[in-house]
Amino acid sequence: MLRFLNSLFGRVILALMAGVAIGLFWPDTAVQLKPLGDGFIKLIKMLIPLIVFCVVVHGIAGTGDLKRVGRVGIKSLIYFEVVTSIALVLGLALAFWFEPGVGMNVDPKALDPKAMGAYAENASKLTGGGFSDFVLKLIPTTAVSAFANGDVLQVLLFSIVFGCALALMGERGTRVTTLIEDLSHVLFKTMGLIIKLAPLGVLGAIAFTVGKYGIGSLKQLGMLVVLFYAAVAIFVVVVLGLIMRFSGFSLFKLLRYLREELAVVFATTSSDSVLPQIMAKLKHMGIRDSTVGLVIPTGYSFNLDAFSIYITLAAVFIAQATNTPITMTDLLTILAISLVTSKGAHGVPGSAIVVLAATLHAIPAIPAIGLVLVLSVDWFMGIARALGNLVGNCVATVAIAAWEGDIDRERAHAVLDGRNPPATGPQSAP
């Protein structure tokens, strides 16, 4: 018991329980604790651009094999598209099988359009300009602006170019490579100090939620929410479980290894809050720096598995709730549009609703105003979205590393089994 209390996971769980209690018995006080959760996430996000830069640059420059980096990038994109497509189809299938919106008989004209104002504006920005505009947004105005705005994809693009240039310099770039490696150790040490505040962040986030929405916010909130949680669980256990098995590892051992990060994500509903720790743990497993540095940041925008399930499930739910008939053409359009709109969602305020609005914008048959129905439960669905996306990206990293031969299997099995990893492993914890 003492060991549990002294662990970060134990303190996070205790903070979670305390947050529920405060929110239940002192709701007014609980709502005022929201800055604790927000502040913790901001502290984490403060370091993310620099950590991504250091990990990617050092990984590429340290490897010196640009062909390998290119292969990892291409394999990552192929993997992301295949697995995301499976998630989208799963959401559609479950929505048609269980029909969560049938019987609601909602009149779209009776819904308040004011609630959708800000989301509709962001949706138009997301879809405006098409594919070419999306690609141009990946290029920062300046290298500094990418870091200042905290845009992970822009930082990743600059990091890849910088790392390739450094690798091509050979011996002349050794000092810069060493400097970046040392800087990464300092950043991860800083992250270690910040992560000690995780229990406070969890306390504030969960207390605010229970205080504002009541204890009912932690219970069943309708067929849509239950079905979404079930869909994410099925996807993680079956699809991701099979991917891990084919890669030669156990999904459940990976989940146990990442339990602290999963607990933080559960409370904060943000996978950003653990991005640096996840990268550090995957490197500690024995996965090559460059693979972790490429797959994880890219996956945060291109491999949103649970997010994809949400889009198709919610779209069909809205159609059913508003008694809107949808054809096979509409379904195929939903799949095609979702593959594109979900890619630029990371970092967009209210991204889930924004992407859903952008998707429905391309399908006039389904009334976009029906999104108001989803707003009331979006936060609760956000818990499963964040957890599913995080697990999906961790599995993707392991799978691609196994595919490319970028993982020390002996070390990985030792770490996942809870044993001391071999001292000779190529990777070590920062």
Overview of the molecule:
- The chain is mostly helical.
- It has a single domain, classed as Proton glutamate symport protein, CATH 1.10.3860.10.
- It has 22 helices and no strands.
- The chain starts with a helix and ends in a 14-residue tail after the last helix.
Write the layout of secondary structure elements.
Blueprint: H1 2-6, H2 8-25, H3 27-31, H4 34-63, H5 66-98, H6 117-127, H7 130-137, H8 143-149, H9 152-168, H10 174-195, H11 198-213, H12 223-247, H13 251-257, H14 259-268, H15 275-284, H16 289-302, H17 305-321, H18 328-341, H19 351-361, H20 371-375, H21 378-404, H22 409-416
CATH class: Mainly Alpha
The biggest beta sheet reads: none
CATH architecture: Orthogonal Bundle
Which consecutive residue ranges, at least 5 long each, have pLDDT under 50? 217-221, 424-430
Mean pLDDT across every amino acid position: 79
The percentage helix is: over 70%
Large-scale geometry: globular
Strand content: under 5%
* Number of strand segments: 0
Question: What is the count of DSSP helices, taking H or I runs of 4+ residues?
Answer: 22
Q: Output the radius of gyration.
A: 22 Å
SSE topology string: HHHHHHHHHHHHHHHHHHHHHH
Distance between the termini: 28 Å
Structural class: mainly alpha
> CATH topology, what is it called?
Proton glutamate symport protein
Task: Label this structure with key terms.
Proton glutamate symport protein; disordered C terminus; mainly alpha; 430 residues
Condensed summary:
With 430 residues, the protein is mainly α.
